[in-house]
């Protein structure tokens, strides 16, 4: 597949630079002339939105760190000082706190889009696995950032999550002491979490570069799930994809701004406005919404080691998805049965999230067990078997045919 | 020169690589060890002495040793009986009451107050077994601190401690003679 135009700088300085560092050409071929399938819909705009959110988190995070104090006696008060005393501190902190939620919202949409259109299939397996790694890093970063506030929920989230590692037979307890740097979550823990919370976003940025690199090698998937065959199937990234990405990013920012300016307390947990107290556990421990489905999976299993294995397994299984899905057809558009199982899977994930927010008793335990079984069955039983038994619909001959009909 | 022949360059290559690997492994030691508890944390984890006299019958007090909450439970006759009467083999983590307390001090139960599930602090005098109830994931402990119901796999752990007299204990070491 040929590109749409070759970079030829008119500017004298750019010509001079291009001979020494061809960065202009790299940007041109990656983000201007880069051919994108002409049938991309708005679900494909979340990659750009995610890059933007990473930028928002890094910028707001760096300035918040100028006012934050990572010490058990001062952390909580320094966060309150950011809210009350620092110029625009309230705005920066809410942007950062809701930025995390918007980041996860976007990544979940991005992942479900990949799942629906089979974006993880050959030749995009490495691209998908890099995405799973980014997601894992995001979870670790988000968790450690939440601990920095050093409220009650911060402290007990840190205690519960680090204790997950105590389930490992033999070395579990020694490992948890090592993570804590003490005999319980304390000042050493807070300090190292701050250090790592500052580091990991840059690690994420590095893996994002690999992710985009792998994307540009394999090319983008598209709603039809077939590869572009001619120049008629593609349009140049600029202006087509840039304007589409930019437009939907603006729409996404409206939602972001609505949270920040109109309902800033909506997702914040009341218990986290109480300073951390190692002597009292809050009556109900609930993680942030974006971890709730995994929390429900953990709680649905009445055995500590198996529960922890299921929790990590539910995320780790995503890395094996390219080989668990045996169907040669990518897009759910042409997979009538898969489409139904996919939407059921979405309902199960949202349902698990809801059960995770409820107390672990009665009907919620039973339902979260059933939903956990479906979660794993989707990957381990349904996807491998569907590839064998599903009768898929005929694929269009080309992307332009799928857009324009047979007359193309 | 054939490539299969061993040369001095091969030797240098392997020797340099080996030294590099050993050096990298040695450099990991301080990088990993610095995350373990430091000297002041260990020093602050020295044994503590607790006077039991003010603890009334039926009362559970919480003290701290090594940043961990320690429950000291002055058990009533009824609560001791409840703990002793249970069929040990029916328990998830079978341990008779006599192994949970010091000989001759049946009324004193001393346990580390950290749920063995995921580390929350259980609430005293709650749950179906008159012991503790963990608000996080619903584990229930009896009057000997043994797990009876819920996801926790083990009984509340016993800290090392010894009676200095009938009304005084030292938490942190098992011998009654001062260190």
Strand content of chain A: under 5%
Overall structural domain count of chain B: 2
Radius of gyration of chain A: 23 Å
State the secondary-structure class of chain B: alpha+beta
Summarize the model shown.
Chain A has 16 helices and two strands. The longest helix of chain A has 32 residues. Helix content of chain A is 63%, strand content 1%.
Outline the structure in words.
The complex is a heterodimer of chains A (408) and B (179). With 408 residues, chain A is an all-alpha fold. Chain A is 63% helix and 1% strand. Chain A has a single domain, classed as Cytochrome Bc1 Complex, Chain C. Chain A has helices at residues 12-20, 23-31, 46-65, 75-84, 89-116, 125-148, 152-163, 172-180, 187-218, 237-262, 292-300, 304-316, 321-324, 336-356, 363-389, 399-404; strands spanning 35-37, 234-236. In chain A, strands 1-2 form a two-stranded antiparallel ribbon. In chain A, helix 3 (46-65) packs antiparallel against helix 9 and helix 5 (89-116) runs antiparallel to helix 6 (125-148). The longest helix of chain A has 32 residues, at 187-218. The two termini of chain A are 19 Å apart. In chain B, 22% of the residues lie in helices and 24% in strands. Chain B contains three helices and ten strands; from the N terminus they run H-H-E-E-E-H-E-E-E-E-E-E-E. Chain B has helices spanning 8-33, 39-43, 77-85; strands spanning 48-51, 60-65, 68-74, 108-112, 123-124, 130-133, 140-142, 147-149, 161-165, 168-171. Chain B has 179 residues and is α+β, with helices and mostly antiparallel strands. Chain B folds into two domains: 1-36; 42-171, Rieske Iron-sulfur Protein (3-layer Sandwich). Classes of the chains: A mainly alpha (408), B alpha+beta (179). At the A-B interface, helix 7, helix 8 and helix 12 of A face loops of B.
